[in-house]
Design brief:
The chain contains three helices and twelve strands. By secondary structure, the chain is mostly beta strands. A hairpin with a 5-residue loop joins β9 and β10. The radius of gyration is 17 Å and the shape is globular.
């Protein structure tokens, strides 16, 4: 834990390609998506989905936009309304794992060059557990698996991870396309 925390103390940005697999406990189905994620401290992120294309999730830390090109719809809400937990706080929390989670090492025989941690939140977090796989040489994030309160699993595998790139704050806003339906999740 101390090694991971030290490795991310000075990391201000992270950009990576990702594959997301969501498994529904109730429905027994699985969906797979691909894209690129850009994270910046504090609490800024942009998830752009490329397969299937057309969905974007953006927050500047105060406001959040969820865009669906297929529906020509954007949902706007205060960033805190999403709970700010789980993978949404990935970069912000990597330097505070011991403070926020009870952690145990997990058998990593499938990934001998990795460190695998099972993280259980110390306070209510909206999910049961995170499993974090990091490269053992530099603790770069390889994957995160979140098990939610209902037994659903979201797995993110990262590649082409780059830390501390120059990324402007303008990457964390969303321009609403002309003609798009706008829904305010916080009310009128």
């Amino acid at each position: 834990i101390k090694g991971v925390e030290a490795a991310y103390t000075d990391v201000k940005t992270l950009r990576a390609d990702f594959v997301q697999v969501t498994r529904s406990a109730a429905m027994g189905n699985e969906t797979r998506q691909r894209g690129r994620v850009t994270l910046k401290r504090p609490r800024m992120m942009r998830w752009e989905f490329t397969q299937p294309a057309g969905n974007t999730f953006v927050t500047n830390g105060d406001q959040m936009w969820v865009w669906s090109a297929a529906d020509q719809q954007v949902v706007i809400s205060k960033a805190g309304a999403a709970g700010g937990q789980g993978m949404a706080q990935l970069l912000d929390d990597l330097n505070r794992l011991g403070e926020l989670f009870d952690a145990t090492m997990v058998d990593n025989s499938d990934h001998p060059n990795s460190v695998v941690l099972s993280l259980t939140p110390k306070t209510e977090a909206g999910f049961q557990r995170l499993t974090l796989r990091l490269a053992s040489k530099d603790y770069s994030v390889q994957s995160v698996v979140m098990l939610d309160a209902f037994g659903n699993e979201v797995s993110l595998t990262f590649n082409q991870v780059k830390n501390n790139l120059e990324i402007g704050d303008d990457q964390f806003t969303f321009s609403i396309p002309a003609g798009a339906k706008v829904l305010n999740a916080d009310g009128p």
